[in-house]
Amino acid sequence: MLDPIVSFFTRLFQMIGRGIGVLVSVILWPFMWLGRWYGERGWILKGIVGLILAVLVGTYGYFFYVTQVWTNFDPDYPSQIPAGSAPPQAANVVAGDPISTGASNGAAAGTNAQADPNAQTCKRSEIAAVSAYLVDFNVNQNAWISSMLVSKLGFFGIPWRNTPFFDNKAAFQLGINQVMRRTTTELVDTLGRTRGTSRIDQNLQDARTALAWNEDAWYIGLRGPTRPTPSVYREAITKLRAFNDSLERCQATFDARADNLQLFLDRIAGDIGSTSDILRGQIEASDAGWFDPRADDRFWFTYGQLYAYYGILHATQDDFSAIIRERNLTALWDTLQQQMRGALNMQPWIISNGNESSFIFPSHLATMGFNLLRARSQIVEIRQVLDR
């Protein structure tokens, strides 16, 4: 009775084995042909081809390394960014406000020089400081993936984002960069000006222009030689820190008003809402579980946004500290921070975009979308309190 069943499964596994063998032979055939061709060439041609292959192997090896090693990745990074040399009384004022006189600074520093009694020190902006840190994290502490030549070439011509390989870190970096573009725009248009009618701060304007640079620019583009993305983004770091230096000398403006905070939160809520809609689109487009090649880059782009906004909102609480206390927003803000930090604990090894009711294939995109909307609802609640 069991012989037909055993025979069926035997034939089935034999067919699967032959299929795998054919697939492996098809994949290896070009390499075997190249090996035979290479063995028949002269030593000069062998040397040239060998050098080219060594360069390719080294380049791809470096690419694989930098996509897998995430240097200084730490969801708790906001609490580890140095607060600078601001005195304790700085905690009671908003960014840009005076915190001490030149005389007290000179005494605190233990210098013998006569300080200018009319000089003041103003509170630095933590939003600008965290922004500079995140750009530095993207392009100095880690290699910027999107503009690397191997990243642009893709997997045998297929864009890496359409494969399940080596695109997670690039998507994560692009998510952070999206937040940096939004934040520098708000710094230029509202936060770094008095009521939006004063002159634009040139350092902030230069930082925004730098971060607007093409994210995948290499040394050569369609129009000829160009500047690679990392070198341009490094200018943004310099300009953001220069703005903070000017702000500390009370030579720049940070307009920490309640309506500016409200507008900033509106922009963040809109950005988060847009990303949640992208996640929903991917969930509806596919339920292939672990075999959806676009699920991982959607997930890690969103994670990058949350990672960056967690730091930016942590900094916002410091820059608008007096307003947050006056409006009794501390408890709501702490809850928001806790929710976003909890979402950053979600770091699955393989991203699955299965049906939301699936038992075998979880829906990591749905869970991330829930975390996004949860944070957005908390931001909207804070905004409503500010609007009263």
Explain the overall architecture.
- InterPro entries: UCP029693.
- This is DUF2333 family protein.
- Pfam families: DUF2333 (PF10095).
- 62% of the residues lie in helices and 3% in strands.
- The strands form two sheets. It has a two-stranded antiparallel sheet with strand order 1-2.
- Helix 6 packs antiparallel against helix 9, helix 10 packs antiparallel against helix 12 and helix 12 packs antiparallel against helix 13.
- About 4% of the residues have low confidence.
Structure summarized in a few sentences:
This protein is mainly alpha-helical and 388 residues long. It has helices at residues 3-39, 43-68, 102-109, 126-139, 149-153, 168-191, 202-211, 229-248, 258-285, 295-319, 321-326, 330-343, 364-387, and strands at 98-101, 120-122, 220-221, 224-225.
Q: Which keywords apply here?
A:
about 400 residues, two-stranded antiparallel sheet, 2 domains, flat, single chain, about 60% helix, mainly alpha
